[in-house]
Design goal:
mainly alpha, Amino acid/polyamine transporter I, 21 helices, transmembrane helix
Length: 472
């Protein structure tokens, strides 16, 4: 099965030093928030509201937060017990099987690599709205170079840059919710209204104007909005005192996200008729954030939100390159990729893994040239689907780990952090994740991405069987 050494043990690597433990709780919380608050909230939220109606959207995001919380509790227990880089793959290897561990590691690498190119492309397109005469490729190259430098410099530099990039988004969301509440209660003038809008819009068209089915159909978009929270698990191997910092970060991140996401949806739904929220939401000017800020009379609303979304995209790319490169590093440490992938710079960053992951972003960069809508939607579908598969595996790993823990004579009191309500937490997390995966089949435009993911999973299992079955 598995070597007794953990992947962070230098002797196990032979050719590389262990990754440095340079992150604090502050960095972990912001890494998690930064990974989750992105285009899924700024642009995707309008789409969910338009499809489900106000009450449906609030339920969708609340359910999404609940699923994320259950998965993160499972992850917290595993990450405190076994704080290693490449975490999900390592847990799946030990608590499900070596082939699944191998598949999950590659799948999580694919998750972030698939979105990396789209993040750069989308950020470059937004810059073009400001500077129409500058080629999109120049902006793409600038952004790619910036993220590459932040990732190879040092773990500390990466964590610090991610902290400030995420802070821009957090401040924007908090300001949006506070100003929105003031407008709802008539403290701030809103779009020429003579009386406070209050919450009359929420039920203006009935409880569920399009029925209950859209809540199910939009679960993938909603869960993808919460994806990134699991970055805490990836970073656990580079965190000082993970037993204290990881549980703190998980609790802090999830509750903040739930308040931010549900709060944002309530404000948008109270202030805008739901039919307006998702109107052509691919354009920044039609983001519900821009509409609400403009109706409040805030100058340069479109420019402010454009800047925030560019920050959100770069922050997601920054986190994505970090997470994907750590997965390659973990595979190399286990001799499932050439040794050069676990070679570290003197600052402790896996240079080859970072460079190769950057090349993996090329399909996303091509999205602007060839059928951008189709490629972009399918890449996001692939990223969302693979993320939910990883979440499903986390629930199974924690369930199996806890059962093994009890069988060996340990009690819950022996765990430094225990997920509450076992076995309900992993079982419900698993069931909801499976339902979310099935929801992808309801959108015909996402089927190519769905089948591509299934083929990729089959290839992972097949290659592991032929290449590594005798080595585990």
């Amino acid at each position: 099965m598995q070597s007794s050494h953990s992947p962070n043990d230098a002797s196990h690597q032979g050719n590389s030093a262990p990754l440095k433990r340079a992150m604090s709780t502050r960095h972990l919380v912001m890494l998690s928030l930064g990974g989750a608050i992105g285009t899924g909230l700024f642009l995707g939220s309008g789409e969910v509201i338009a499809q489900t109606g106000p009450v449906g959207a609030i339920i969708s995001y609340f359910l999404g937060g609940l699923i994320a919380y259950m998965v993160m509790l499972c992850l917290g227990e595993l990450a405190v017990h076994m704080p290693v880089s490449g975490s999900f793959g390592e847990y799946a290897n030990k608590y499900i099987g070596p082939a699944t561990g191998y598949m999950i590691t590659w799948l999580y690498w694919l998750t972030w690599t698939a979105t990396l190119g789209t993040e750069f492309t989308a950020a470059a397109l937004l810059m073009q709205e400001w500077f129409p005469h500058v080629s999109m490729w120049i902006w793409t190259a600038i952004f790619a170079a910036l993220i590459f430098i932040l990732n190879i410099s040092s773990t500390r530099m990466f964590a610090e840059s991610e902290f400030w990039l995420a802070l821009v988004k957090v401040v924007t969301v908090v300001s949006f919710i506070l100003l929105g509440l003031l407008a709802i209660f008539g403290v701030v003038s809103y779009h020429g209204e003579t009386q406070a809008p209050l919450f009359s819009n929420l039920l203006a068209q009935g409880w569920f104007p399009k029925g209950l089915m859209p809540i199910f159909a939009t679960m993938l978009i909603v869960n993808f909005a919460f994806s990134g929270t699991e970055l805490i698990g990836v970073a656990a191997g580079e965190t000082a005192d993970p037993a204290n910092n990881v549980p703190k970060a998980i609790n802090a991140a999830i509750w903040r996200l739930l308040i931010f996401f549900v709060g944002t949806i309530v404000v948008i739904c109270a202030l805008l008729p739901y039919q307006q929220a998702g109107l052509n939401a691919a354009h920044v000017s039609n983001s519900p954030f821009v509409t609400v800020f403009s109706y409040m009379g805030i100058p340069y609303a479109e420019d402010i939100i454009r800047f925030v979304i560019i920050t959100a995209l770069l922050s997601a790319a920054n986190s994505g390159l970090y997470a994907a490169s750590r997965m390659m590093w973990a595979l190399s440490v286990k001799r499932q990729l050439p040794a050069m992938f676990s070679k570290l710079t003197k600052h402790g960053t896996p240079i080859t893994a970072i460079i190769v992951t950057m090349f993996g972003a090329i399909p996303g960069l091509l999205s602007e040239q060839f059928a951008p809508e189709t490629i972009f939607k399918n890449l996001l579908g692939v990223a969302a689907f693979t993320m939910v598969i990883v979440w499903t595996a986390i629930c199974v790993c924690q369930f199996n780990f806890r059962r093994q823990w009890y069988k060996t004579g340990h009690t819950i009191a022996d765990l430094r952090f225990a997920a509450p309500w076992f076995p309900l937490t992993p079982i419900l997390g698993f069931v909801f994740c499976v339902i979310t995966c099935i929801s992808m089949t309801q959108d015909s435009s996402m089927l190519p991405g769905f089948y591509s993911c299934l083929i990729f999973i089959a290839l992972c299992y097949t290659s592991h069987y032929f290449l590594y079955r005798d080595k585990d």
